[in-house]
Amino acid sequence: MRSEPRRGLSPAAVTLGLGSLGGALVLPWVIGSGYYLQLYTLAYVNVILALGLNIILGFTGQLALAHAGLFGVGAYTSALLVMRLGVSFWLALPISAAFAAVVGGAIGVSSLRLKGHYLAIATAGFGIIIYQIFANWISLTRGAAALSDIPVPTPLIVPGLVRITFETRTAIYYLILAATLLAVFVIWRLKYSRVGDALVAIREDEVAAEVIGVNTFRYKLLAFVLSACYAGAAGSLYAHYTRIIAPEMFHLFETVGSLLMVVSGGLGSIGGVIATSIFFTIAPEVLREVKDYRMVAYGALLVVVMVFLPEGVAGGIRRVRRWVQPRAKLEASVGPA
Amino acid sequence: MKRLGLGLTVIAAIALLGSAPVLGANKIKLGYLLPLSGGGAEYGQRQLRGATLALEEVNAQEAQTGFGIEMTTADTKCVPLEGSNAAERLAERDRVSIMVGGSCSPEAIAALRVTRRLEMPHVVPTAAAVSITEEGNPYVFRTIPHNHHLAEQLADTIADKLKLKRIATVYLNDDFGIDLNTAVTKRLAAKGVQIVAQEGVERTTMDFFSIVAKLKPLNPQAVIAPVFNKPAAQLARTMREQGMAAPLMDTVMFTAEFHDLAGPAAHGTVQNLFFHHTTRNPQGKTFAERFKTKYNDFPGNFEAEAYDAIWVIADALKRSGAGKSGFDKNAFLRAMRETKAFPGVMGPVTFDAKGQVLPAEGKITVIHNKDGKVEVME
Amino acid sequence: MTERALVQLLSGLVTGSVYTVTALGLTMVYGILNLMNFAHGEVFMVGAYVGYFLASTYGASYPVAFLGAMLGAVLLGLLIEAVGFRPLRDAPQLAPLIASLGISIFLQNLALLVWSPTPRMFQTPYVNQVVHLGVISLSGQRVLVFVVSLLLIAALYVIVQRTALGKAMRATALDAEAASLMGINIRWVVVATFALGSALAGAAGALVGPIVLLSPFMGIPVILKAFAVVIMGGFGNIQGTIVAGFLLGIVESLAALALPSVYIDIIAFVMLIGTLLVRPTGLFAEHLEENV
Does A245 touch chain B (CB under 8 A)? Predict the structure, then answer.
């Protein structure tokens, strides 16, 4: 079973990665702590969300459309735990991620035996039901009136050593950056592990994978649960960052944003998805005048990407590299046919 | 000869300088939260026109007063989340000093949380939920009477003037609607009027078939339905379709759009307004004329609300010395609180200790759609 | 109380007929291409708007507006097929699915920009007409919706069962390769199916438009309910879709007697998920279809 080159990181990719990391670390110094820092913080949340979708869609090839709903499960669970039960954010975050994973598991167990569009519609249906619960269980979520004044994370204290408070935008920026780096690390390890290989095998040819002994249902469920966990964690971070959440943020159509980020970044790619997630968060804000055209553009881009660049940005770069690299070197790196 | 010429030149120069726009007139930045898209877009567009007219007039006096107002708008879609985000954007990105708006009560309440945290003065021109001025926010001012005053007026009209005995209510399931419905039904009950049904609906509800089917056998003489224009028109049409003749009653939600969309189904509707273009109030008449000249259309409730809000702010800015030293938050807040009987187009403006405008005489008009013609019932 | 139930039942028949007409268009395309078209709801929406503009801006009579709506819908459907489905014929199943989702989003928001979010009221002479059926009264428009829908369903049935085109469609649905070997031009069958399906959606839009208010997002609840009907009826199963469509309409309307309106929409999804879990090939399927 031939897989992609191990640790397939070219020197260019490493430089780009480290450069971006450096840039991210010093960003608050460069652009201050105002509106644009908030945008970047939001972009990192979208990165975590998109990477989560990447696990089930990109690696495993299953179009699961409940992602925005699971994002909401994480957000509401975390906010309500902190506000109604006085739980600390640092506990609420993992609990929310876990709860979202459980909900994802329940959805997965019910739906993952279905294929293709059946799965898409079933998960979409679940996503809508989750949304309706948010919107109509008013005593719990305040419905459309929005849940606001969600507290920021409580200070992180290491006795005698350090005390970090999260009252400022800058502090929260670093917190979310750290969470994003963790998320990237985990998915990176997943991609180059045997589990990751199994998932890709399922995506490429599910029947063949089944034949060679991969328990496709179990692996699909694992991928779905993991992606739900990412969505839940992103939700918790998001809730305590924006401090106001409402059901419309977790509607089925919000999944389209993440979908676009994954598809245009490249199904299964990490760097590509990170780049497109950040791009699609920042660009609509910077190009304020064209904000009205945002959703029109998203729809059109989905079609364009599917037709012309189905491997996304990452695939496009790979193609460019193959075109630029002389043939001899190519054969040497890939090995004898 | 030469000296005369020089003297004339000097005099001309001085005259020119004096009539030129005052360089460095203090520009006060104001942010206006409006629903410019979505179901409440009508309300936002109307307010925008009223506010723009007011701004023109205020800024025309720039040379005398020493300050001008620069308005930036943000679209809130009448949704609390957007209202909150828009308020943040106006405050952080556009750096406004005064916030105006939140048309719908839930949206206004969400925006107020932001401005309260930022300690920014916030004027609410159209949202009527009582809680807005009852939460101890020292920075908020509301330039219209709130739900309880509206409820009282409507209840009086229904029970005393129209002498109706059986009423049903259809209300929005949000801070505004629930608040209003409770107030109205309580006052009606106190006057011996029977409430046969109370139906809560969502803002997005457009299909009233089942609701009407439920109301019809209960035979109400009127249906109080303070919802947005389009759902109200749908409700009216569905009622006629199923053979219900009862008219609709409203507080301040219906604009001309409702009457247009509902057509004959709107006949008999009774509603509260803060402003009607046939008003006898002298400021109101002037406003109506100027508005007609500029926009070739009659101003209604929402235009007047926005217009008054801007003017009240301008007046307070003047008294707070903005012309000389620019925007001083505390001076401005003090000046706002000290506003006494400011001649607004909707009536005199005086604030109580909570920032709520006192409902003075003639502040609420009742109008009646009699077969397509509007009749003012005082 | 029985008067209320009767009114709801009649209303259910009307809504059911709309669900059926829309779902039929969807299930036909699935039968041929094995693909769900997410953008079908927008064909419905555009049909409603085209009818509205013909009637209001150009003063066309309602029958003309109705036919114009169907025509507009067909054109749009063909465009969607050409842009979103044809280029992705050989791509993995995921691709056209995502592409049709993208087209759906694109069309909704384009309509939002071009036609503004202000809901429009589509006036026809039948909306204000009241038809009395004993103690119950309904608007003429609702009765018209029911009658025309039945006619459309009957017409579709005739086309599929009695014409050469219908035969070709059925053959292609059964086995595309064999059909093409027998000389059937698959390309034409696909185009014709899309055209027919879109015509149905457009007709539904022009029928329902006057009852509700037109908005760019009016296709969303419709497509979701249509999916539910298609799944309950069995993908590609015309008879099943007809039964399921009316069933859903009636269940929803009767449920409105007991439940608050917000829960009515969930019924369709609960039924949908239930069907997927218990009998994914549809409640009325005679033979088991392959689920891959």
Answer: yes
In a domain, B218, yes or no: yes
Could you give the CA distance from residue B325 to residue B314 in angstroms, rounded to a whole number? 15
The angle at the Cα of A236, spanning B118 to A217, to the nearest 5 degrees, equals 160
Q: Quick one: B30 and B77 in the same domain?
A: yes
Domain ranges of chain C: 2-228
Residues A248, C217: Cα–Cα separation, whole Å: 14
Give me the residue from A38, A149, A246 closest to B80, CB to CB: A246
Question: Is there a single domain that holds both residue B106 and residue B207?
Answer: no
Does the beta-carbon distance from C113 to A117 stay under 8 Å? no
Any A CB within 8 A of C282 CB: no
Minimal CA separation from A18 to chain B, in Å: 30
Between B121 and A336, the higher pLDDT residue: B121
Any idea what the Cα angle at residue B108 is, between residues B168 and A142, rounded to 5°? 65
Q: Which residues of C touch A265 (CB under 8 A)?
A: none
CB contact C291 to A (< 8 Å):
yes
Q: How far is C67 from chain A (nearest CA, A)?
A: 28
Instruction: Note whether B214 contacts C4, CB cutoff 8 Å.
Output: yes
* Residue B4 included in any domain: no
Check CB contact under 8 Å for C87 and A310. no
C59-110 residue pLDDT tens: 888 899 999 999 999 999 999 999 888 888 877 777 888 898 899 989 998 9
Q: How far apart are CA A180 and CA B283, in angstroms?
A: 59
Same domain for B187 and B125 = no
Phi, psi of A30 (to 5 degrees): -80, -45
Q: Which of A34, A35, A249 sits opposite B81 (nearest CB)?
A: A249
B347 strand-pairing partners: B344
Contact C128 B264 (CB under 8 A): yes
Count of beta carbons in the 10 Å neighbourhood of residue A167: 10
Chain A residues within an 8 Å CB radius of C267: none
Least CB–CB distance from A145: residue in B89, B93, B175 = B175
Residue B11 lies in a domain: no
Same domain? For B312 and B341 the reply is: yes
The last residue of one of the domains, among B273, B303, B324, is: B273
Q: Hey, is B33 helix, strand or coil?
A: strand
> C208: which residues sit within 8 A by CB, 6+ positions away?
C18, C48, C145
Closest residue of chain C to A207, computed from CA coordinates: C292
Closest to B307 (Cα-Cα) out of B346, B255, B333, B268: B346
CB pairs under 8 A between A and B: 42
The candidate with the shortest Cα–Cα distance to C49, out of C141, C104, C120, is C120
Number of domains in chain B: 2
- Per-residue pLDDT tens listing for chain A (337 residues): 334 444 556 777 788 888 888 888 888 888 776 778 888 999 999 999 999 999 999 888 888 899 999 999 999 999 999 999 999 999 999 999 999 999 999 999 988 888 777 888 889 889 988 998 998 888 888 887 788 888 888 888 877 777 888 888 888 899 999 999 999 999 999 998 988 888 888 888 888 888 888 888 899 999 999 999 999 999 999 999 988 898 988 988 788 889 989 999 988 889 899 999 999 888 877 766 566 677 788 889 889 988 888 888 887 777 777 777 755 555 555 545 4
pLDDT higher than 60, residue B23: no
**Could you report the predicted ipTM of this complex, rounded to two decimals?**
0.82
- How many interface pairs between A and C have CB atoms less than 8 angstroms apart? 117
pTM: 0.83
**Which residue range is the domain that position B214 belongs to?**
148-273
Query: Which among A116, A125, A307 has CB closest to C87?
Result: A307
What is the band of B5 on the pLDDT scale with cuts at 50, 70, 90?
low
Q: Chains with ≥3 Cβ pairs under 8 A against A? A: B, C
Please tell me if residue B79 touches chain A, with a CB cutoff of 8 Å: yes
CA–CA dist A150, A153 (Å, integer)? 9
> What pLDDT is attached to residue C288?
43
The residue of chain C with its CA nearest to that of A260 is C102
B186, B262: one domain: yes
Residue at B89 is within a domain: yes
B174 touches A at CB < 8 Å: yes
